[in-house]
Amino acid sequence: MARRSGKTRQKTASKSAPGRLRIVAGIWRSRLLDVADVPGLRPTSERIRETLFNWLAPRIEGARCLDLFAGTGALGLEALSRGAREAVFVERSPLAAEVLRRNIAELGAGNATVVTADALAWLDSGLEGEFDVVFLDPPFAADLLADLCRLLYERGVPAAGASVYLEQDLDRPAPVLPEGWRLVNNKTAGRVRYMLAAPGS
């Protein structure tokens, strides 16, 4: 999950201790992990993660996941805890990426890869393989969701039947999706709008 400014986002209440990330469910349920000391870096709230992974429950087992703007890695780690086959985390902050690597090592997650890179540049450079689940939680002020979805579409990143998670500030309209994509879930929590999209074939 990416950095936020206090003016653009107010996080919903979470049970995680300050500076700590709690895995909600799965094999690492209730495990507490460190959060890097990077301004504005916070995990996606437990409330949102619970709802999101209820949506993803039919497809998360064995899924290959991409966590762009990974930040704390809350979404990708939750996916791995719940049975995802693999997760690739992309995070441009060297400190956040290093703390995420340490957390992955502590969990013994051999199926996790951390890439220290700008998410847009990484997508634009080309990547190998398709993903079953993609998490998009960029900085709200940047308003990147439409461009990210377009890049995912152009690069053929989503596999057949994939799900793409989108998170944004409540004040912004839902992003324009590529042709053939549709929103299948759309909810709010506090000042956050979070959605699940189904890319077209």
How would you describe what is shown here?
With 201 residues, the chain is α/β, with parallel strands linked by helices. It has a single domain, classed as Rossmann fold (3-Layer(aba) Sandwich). The protein has helices at residues 46-56, 74-81, 94-107, 119-124, 145-155; strands spanning 20-22, 32-34, 64-68, 86-91, 112-116, 131-136, 158-169, 182-189, 192-198. The strands form 2 sheets. It has a 7-stranded mixed beta sheet, sandwiched between helices. Strands 1-2 form a two-stranded antiparallel ribbon. Strand 4 (86-91), helix 3 (94-107) and strand 5 form a beta-alpha-beta unit. It is globular, with a radius of gyration of 15 Å.
User: How many structural domains?
Assistant: 1
CATH C-level name? Alpha Beta
Strand % is 25-35%
The helix/strand series, from N terminus to C terminus, equals EEHEHEHEHEHEEE
Count up the helices. 5
Looking at the overall shape, the CATH architecture is: 3-Layer(aba) Sandwich
| CATH fold annotation | Rossmann fold
Average pLDDT rating: 88
The largest beta-sheet arranges its strands as 5-4-3-6-7-9-8
* Unreliable residue stretches: 2-17
Radius of gyration: 15 Å
- Total beta strand runs: 9
Overall body shape = globular
Largest sheet: 7 strands, mixed
Structural class: alpha/beta
Tell me the name of the CATH homologous superfamily: Vaccinia Virus protein VP39
How far is the first residue's CA from the last residue's CA? 27 Å
- Relative helix content: 10-25%
